[in-house]
Structures are given as structure tokens and as C-alpha cells.
Amino acid sequence: MSEGDKIRVMIVDDIIDTRDQLEKLLFFEKDIEVIAKAGNGREAVAMAKQYRPDVVLMDINMPDMDGIAATEAILTQDPTIQVIIMSVQGETDYLRRAMLAGAREFLTKPISADDLYKSIRHVHRLAATRSRPAVATSSSDGGGGAGGSTSEGQIIAVFSPKGGVGTSSIAANLAVALRQLTNKKVALLDANVIFGDLSVILNLRSDKTIIDIATRIDEMDRELLNDVMATHTSQIKVLLAPPDPQRGELVTSDHIRTILDLMRREFDYVVVDTPATFQDRSLAVLDMANRIVTLMTLEMHCIRNIKLFLEVADLLEYPHEKVMLVLNKASNRTGIRAEDVEKNIQRKVSLQIGDAGQDMTFSINQGVPLVIGKPSHQIVRDVVALAKELAAAAKAAETPGQQTPPDQKSGSFFSRMIPKR
């Protein structure tokens, strides 16, 4: 790579040691050059105008002018600059504010060298390809010639921006219900690669997990995929999470995208237990999903996170029908009514799944999904109703000329955010 081809980076942080450390991390990368360093937002705006960097590494919390305001000012004067926000806080509100400002990536401190290199190269590559037609990006998802096929299966992400609302249990029961209802090929992916629970919920024991694919991602084909996936007694195929968090860290968002792309070619339905975070692994799933079954409970902190997520989904221009709001553990004992929540968040709840905490806990401890162990249970009827609605939507999408493909961006969450000015 010639000198002129280097990615020109400006580092903005009010802590000198942090600026120097980031510069040292980038020093030996032949395709990256640090051209300027700024100690606050105002200085960054002036230096961005002077040096015209390709990428700005921007701390979010700084005196005088913070990283959010500086990002907005920099992108106003030069929208081609790519900004990566850095913060010690990984909370949803920080993420949302960074997105609104026009940032392309969000890195939580401390930042690993690998994450830093990948993010810089990724946003720079996005800037170079942004002017290309959308159809040209289809090859980046690993789809080959079948990328436009209307026979691809439906990816259903079961997600909540708040942990502890039952996404894993609902994902497992939903996958089995879809299999029972449609008799089609159903896969279940445990994308919670750090602390996955599906092996416990389904009582599956396997020495092969997603890590066996991630470490051989360049060799991945349908034979490897089917060899690694475990078969449940319900005849759904399950790709399990690694048994320990250390190995789970090896699974990247690019691995998730590649795996999902093949799974939707092999299965009619791919249900994904999606982690309750806005990190790249989760966002890769949400981007690729045809439907996002968004679970909420009648608790104030969950409602707040749901509202923030819906704002984020609108910013990403997800169609409203892609995000399906489902009330889980529905009960009239919380002091909050679903109708009042709908008014507050300006979105209708599509379905409600009742509260049967004791029965659900018992089914998890037994390793037998409720849809199998107690098929007449009210909760099962609620889950089956959800499966029916998803199956009906999938059938409607199969109509020639009517199918709207899911978002297939190969980038992260921020790569899709273009500030509207």
C-alpha cells in the first residue's frame, strides 16, 4: 500500500495518555496513519477542517465541547469524514446519542487493538463503497448467485433491549412451535455466545458449538453447518453457544452474518436468540432479520429501553412491520396497563404472552420446552399464536414480486446511519 493510500486518522480525547496509547496501537499498522490529535471538541472541529482526516476517533465525554457536539459540527462541515465514538459507557442512551450525531461506530473503552483496527478499516471501506448501488452489496453477504432467491428462509430475531425478559425461553418454544405448526425445516441459533442458555432449556448435550464454525469460517458449507448443529427431539436443528465465555469472545459479528446467510438458505425458518445488547453481534442479527420479535415486560426500566430501541429502529429506517412488539409475562399485577404503555411508546403491542413463571421455570429445569411438556397450557397457546402470525407473514412474503428482502448490510449498526441534514 502506498503512502497516499493510508487511512488518515485523527484522535480526539481530553486525556493525553489515552491519545498517546491509541497512537501507539496504530503506529505499526501500515495502512493507517495518525495525522492529528486533539484534546477537546472545539480543537477537533478546527483540526478536522485543516487536516481533512478520513476517520476521527472521538471520545464522547470531554470538557468545553463534548464528542457528540463535535461530531455534529465536523459532519456538518465535511459529511465524508467517518467518526468512531469512544466511551467508557456502553449504555443504550449513549449509543442513541452517538447515532443521532452521525457516528458510524461505537467502541466501549478499554478498546482492544483488534477492535480498533477493524473499526477504522470498516468505516473507511464503507465510505469508499457508499456511492455504489445497493444491489452491488449483495455479494458481500456471502450469498453468491442465490442472493436474490425468493426461496430463502425467514430469519426471526427474538430480542429485547432489557435482559431477563425471557428471550431464550420464548425463542426455544417458538422454534418448536413453528416446526409443529408448519412441518418445515426450522433452525435455532444461540447468538448469545457469551452466556447462552439454549443447551439447558432444550437439554441438549453436544461437543460441537458455533465456535467450531467460527474457527473454520472460510471452509463453511452446508455439510459443516449440519455436522455442527445439534438435533432436538422436536426435529429442529440447534446451533449452540460455546460452553464458556472465553471461547464465545472469538465469535465475531462477521461470523454471525456468514452463518446466518447460509442458515437461511438451508432452513425455512431461522429463530435467533439475540443478546440484550447493542453490540455488533446483536446488531448483525437485527439487520439481517425479516422480523424482530421484540419482547417487553410491564416494568418501567424495560419500557424505557423499549422506547429507546424503537427510536433507534426508526433511525435505521426499519419498516414498522419488521419490529413486532410482544408483551411477555403479561399480568395485571404490575400496576401498569398495556394500553397506557402503547400510548407512551406510540406503538401497538401485537401479541401478549401470559405470565407462568413457575411453569416456565419448571420446564427449563426439566429441559423440556413448554410447547412439548404442556401443549394445552395457555402460554403455549400464546406462543402458537405468535408462530401462526409469523408463518402467515412468511407465506405472504413468498408471493412473487411481493417479497421485501431483509437488510443485508455487511457493516455494523453505525454503518447504516447517514445524518439527515
Question: What would your notes on this structure say?
Answer:
This protein is an alpha/beta fold and 421 residues long. It folds into 2 domains: 3-134, Response regulator (Rossmann fold), CATH 3.40.50.2300; 145-397, Rossmann fold (3-Layer(aba) Sandwich), CATH 3.40.50. It contains 17 helices and 13 strands. Strands 8-9-7-10-6-11-12-13 form an 8-stranded mixed β-sheet, with helices on both faces. A 5-stranded parallel β-sheet has the order 2-1-3-4-5, sandwiched between helices. The two termini are 35 Å apart.
Task: Spell out the blueprint of helices and strands.
Layout: E1 7-12, H1 16-27, E2 32-38, H2 41-51, E3 55-59, H3 67-77, E4 82-87, H4 92-101, E5 105-108, H5 113-129, E6 154-159, H6 167-182, E7 186-190, H7 198-201, H8 210-214, H9 222-228, E8 230-231, E9 237-239, H10 245-248, H11 253-266, E10 269-273, H12 280-288, E11 291-296, H13 300-315, E12 323-330, H14 338-345, E13 351-354, H15 357-366, H16 370-373, H17 378-397
Parallel strand pairs: 1-2, 1-3, 3-4, 4-5, 6-10, 6-11, 7-9, 7-10, 11-12, 12-13
Antiparallel strand pairs: 8-9
Helix pairs in contact: 2-3, 4-13, 6-17, 11-12
Write a short abstract of this structure.
The protein has helices at residues 16-27, 41-51, 67-77, 92-101, 113-129, 167-182, 198-201, 210-214, 222-228, 245-248, 253-266, 280-288, 300-315, 338-345, 357-366, 370-373, 378-397, and strands spanning 7-12, 32-38, 55-59, 82-87, 105-108, 154-159, 186-190, 230-231, 237-239, 269-273, 291-296, 323-330, 351-354. With 421 residues, it is of the alpha/beta class. The chain has 2 domains: 3-134, Response regulator (Rossmann fold), CATH 3.40.50; 145-397, Rossmann fold (3-Layer(aba) Sandwich).
